[in-house]
Amino acid sequence: MVRFLFSLSLAFLFVSTAVSAQEGYAGPSAALVTVAAAKELKDDTPVIIRGKIEKFLGGEKYLFSDNSGNIVVEIDDELWRGISADQNDPVEITGEVEKDFTSVEIEASRIKKI
């Protein structure tokens, strides 16, 4: 009986782990792109950009650049999580394109030093 219950609990653990691995967001994933390419993408497109933060623009906005150009990036204060970066530090920003009639920005969901 104990062996049966042990086998049953292992089977349940396996099934629940397999089910939870399939849960969550399954939409398009972010692709690594240049700033120039990001500017051409549709609104709300997930992206990853690599480069440097050139300067603080105020609020939660920063000027970000790579070899192809620059773009404004909005980085919420809580995303920094103890990261300190200046214009010499390469960073990777994951986020999505925010496009309106007059501008294109990236709204960051994650930032890390690389």
Explain this structure to me?
This protein has 114 residues and is α/β, with parallel strands linked by helices. It has a single domain (31-113), classed as OB fold (Dihydrolipoamide Acetyltransferase, E2P) (Beta Barrel), CATH 2.40.50. The chain is built from two helices and six strands. Strands 2-3-4-6-5 form a five-stranded mixed barrel. The model is unreliable at 4-20 (pLDDT under 50).
The CATH superfamily bears the name Bacterial OB-fold
Helix-strand sequence: HEHEEEEE
**In terms of quaternary structure, what is this?**
single chain
> How much of the polypeptide forms β-strand, as a percent range?
35-45%
Biggest β-sheet description: 5 strands, mixed, barrel
Helix content percent band: 10-25%
CATH architecture: Beta Barrel
Mean pLDDT: 85
Annotated CATH topology: OB fold (Dihydrolipoamide Acetyltransferase, E2P)
Structural class: alpha/beta
CATH class: Mainly Beta
Annotation field: number of helices: 2
- Poorly predicted runs are 4-20
Number of strands: 6
CA-CA gap between termini: 54 Å
Question: Number of domains in the coordinates?
Answer: 1
What Rg is obtained from the alpha carbons, in whole angstroms?
20 Å
